[in-house]
Amino acid sequence: MSTFSLDPGPDQIAVRDWLHGFAADVMRPAAAEWDEREETPWPVIQEAAKLGIYSLDFYAQQYFDPSGVGIPIAMEELFWGDAGIGLSIVGTTLAAVAVLANGTEEQIGTWAPQMFGTPDDVKVAAFCSSEPDAGSDVSALRTRAVYDEAKDEWVLNGTKTWATNGGIAAVHVVVATVDPALGARGQASFVVPPGTPGLSQGQKFKKHGIRASHTAEVVLDGVRVPGHCLLGGKEKLDERLARARERAAAAANGDAKGASGKGASGKNAAMATFEASRPAVGAQAIGIARAAYEVALDYARTRVQFGRPIIDNQGVAFTLADMKTRIDASRLLVWRASWMAANQQPFTSAEGSMSKLYAGETAKWVTAQAMQILGGNGFTREYPVERMHRDSAIYSIFEGTSEIQRLVIARTISGMPIR
Ligand SMILES: Cc1cc2nc3c(=O)[nH]c(=O)nc-3n(C[C@H](O)[C@H](O)[C@H](O)COP(=O)(O)OP(=O)(O)OC[C@H]3O[C@@H](n4cnc5c(N)ncnc54)[C@H](O)[C@@H]3O)c2cc1C
Prior knowledge:
Blueprint lengths: L8 H29 L4 H10 L4 H8 L6 H12 L1 H20 L2 H12 E2 L2 E2 L2 E4 L15 E5 L4 E12 L6 E7 L9 E6 L6 E6 L10 E12 L7 H19 L3 H4 L9 H34 L1 E2 L2 E2 L4 H29 L8 H23 L1 H4 L6 H8 L9 H13 L5
Parallel strand pairs: 3-6
Antiparallel strand pairs: 1-2, 4-5, 5-9, 6-7, 8-9, 10-11
Helix pairs in contact: 1-4, 1-5, 4-5, 4-9, 5-6, 5-9, 9-10, 9-11, 9-13, 10-11, 11-13, 11-14
This protein binds flavin-adenine dinucleotide (FAD).
The site of flavin-adenine dinucleotide has 20 residues, from β3, β5 and α14.
C-alpha cells in the first residue's frame, strides 16, 4: 500500500478549475484598472461573494481539508488571476485565522461571519499587528490594552501601520500588549467590533505593487471593547501571563529552561500560528510567478527576431526552463508544509518558513525574467508582467521578510540563538 501521493484528488481539482474560471474571466480583465485606481475592488469582491468564493464557508472548507492543500490551491489560482485583487479577496482571512487560532468557539461563531458580511452587503476584516517601531520585531509592540475591571472593558491605545484593509474593515483584530515587561509573551489579540468609537484610519499608503489592496494606518484612541472581545478569554490570558512571569523570574535566577523562553508548552503560540500560515502566502507568490511565466513562454514562442522565435535561443529557453523548475520546486515546498501543518507534523526544520522564503524569492526572480523576455513590451503597462513584477516584490517583505524566514530556519536547524 502506498501512502505517498501528490494528486490533490477530484474535489480539489474541481475547486481549482472553478477558481481558475473566476480568475480568468473576472479578475484578469479587471486587474489593470484596479491597479491604476489603487482602490479596493468592491464590485469584484461582491461578484466573488455571490459565487461563494468570498465566504466564510468556502475558506473554512479549504482550511479544514485534511490533505492541507485546499488553501494553497485556492491561493495559487486567485493570485494567478491578479495579486492586488486577490489580496482584497483573501485579506479578510488573515483576521479570520487569528480568531480561529486564538478565539473560543463562541467568539469564532460571533465574529467570523461579520468579517465577510453577506453577498448583498459584503464586508472585509483587518489584522493589525505591525506598528511604526515594531515590524519584524513583534515583541516591540507599544499598543496598550488595559483592563477596566469595573466595566469589564478593555481600553486600547496606539497606532498600527501597514494594515491590509485597515480602517475600511468591519471587524479589526488588534494585537496589543497587556504586560510590556513580558515582550511578545505579554501580548493578546482583541476584536474591535464594527463602528467602535475611537478607531480611525490614518494614512492610506500609495504602494509599489498590490495596489488594488488597501493598506493603511489604524489609530486607536481610547477604544473601549467589551471583555468578551479578548480572544481566548481572560482566564486563559491570566494563566498564560502567570506562566510567562514564572519563566521570566526563572530566567532572572539563571534557570536555563526559563531563559529559553519555551517552558512546558514548547513554542510561542503566536510564532507557531505565523509558521502555519506562511505556506498559504507562499502559494500566493506561486500564483504570480506562474502567471508571469505563462505570458513569457507564450511571448518567447511567438516573438520573432533574427528570423526565428526568440525561444530558439538557448539563453531564452534555458531561462524559461529555470523559471518553470523554480515554480514547481516552490509548489512542492508549499504543499509539503501545508500537508505537515494539516497533519500535525511539527516543523522541525521550519518548513513553513522555507516554503514562504523560496516561493517569495522565486516570484520576484521569475517576474523579473519574464519582463526581460518581453523586452520593451515587458517594461510597459500594455503587458501584465510589469504589474506582476511590482506585485511580487511584497513577497519578500510581508508575513515575515526573507531575512526573518532565514533567521527562523537557521535557529530551528541549529538550535542556536542566531541574531
Ligand atoms: C502591503 C503591505 C501589507 C501589509 N499587511 C499587514 C497586515 O495586514 N497586518 C500587519 O500587521 N502587518 C502588515 N504588513 C507589515 C509587514 O508584515 C511588515 O512590513 C514586515 O513584517 C516588515 O516589517 P518592517 O516593514 O517594519 O521592516 P523592518 O522590520 O524594519 O525591517 C527592515 C529590514 O531589516 C531587515 N531585518 C530586520 N531585522 C532583522 C534581523 N534580525 N536580521 C536580519 N535582517 C533584519 C528586514 O528583513 C528588512 O529587510 C504589511 C506590509 C505591507 C508593505
